[in-house]
Write a structure and sequence with these properties.
The chain is mainly β and 124 residues long. Helix content is 12%, strand content 40%. It has one domain: Roll (PH-domain like), CATH 2.30.29. The protein starts with a strand and ends in a 19-residue tail after the last helix.
Length: 124
C-alpha cells in the first residue's frame, strides 16, 4: 500500500520556484518527503521506517501567528525532521498524516488537544 499526501501549490509568502510538498508513506520501507519546484526539479529525502521513533504534531506559537507543524523524532538525530519544510498546511490536513505515520511506525500517538482527538461528549 502506498499513500501519498500532497499540499496544494501556494505562492504567497514563498519563493516563486516552490510549487508543492508531498509525503509518500511506504509502510514496509519508510517515508519519502518531496519538495516540487515549478522548474520540474524534485528534492527527495527518504527516512527508513525503523529510524522514526515518533511522529509529532506541534503547535507553533509566534508573537504574530499560530500554526501547526508535523515533525518526526528520528533515532540518532539531534533535531526534529519537519515533514513540510516550507508550507504550513491546516491541522485538518496534518492529523490524518500524523495518524497514518503513528500506525505505520507502531507509535502510540495520543493527544489531549480537541483538534486532534475527538472531544468527550460528557465534558461538554
Amino acid at each position: 500500500m502506498l499513500k501519498k499526501v500532497s499540499t496544494a501549490c501556494f505562492l504567497s509568502g514563498f519563493p516563486v520556484s516552490l510549487c508543492a510538498e508531498s509525503v509518500v508513506i511506504m509502510p514496509s520501507f519508510g517515508v519519502q518527503l518531496e519538495i516540487h519546484f515549478w522548474s520540474g526539479r524534485v528534492d527527495r529525502h527518504f527516512v527508513p521506517i525503523g529510524k522514526i521513533l515518533k511522529p509529532l504534531l506541534n503547535e507553533c506559537v509566534t508573537p504574530v501567528t499560530c500554526y501547526w507543524s508535523l515533525a518526526s523524532l528520528l533515532r540518532d538525530e539531534e533535531e526534529l525532521k519537519l515533514v513540510f519544510q516550507k508550507f504550513r498546511p491546516p491541522v485538518k490536513m496534518l492529523v490524518p498524516i500524523w495518524r497514518a505515520l503513528c500506525a505505520f511506525t507502531d507509535s502510540e500517538c495520543t493527544s489531549r488537544h480537541s483538534a486532534v482527538s475527538k472531544p468527550n461528549r460528557s465534558e461538554a
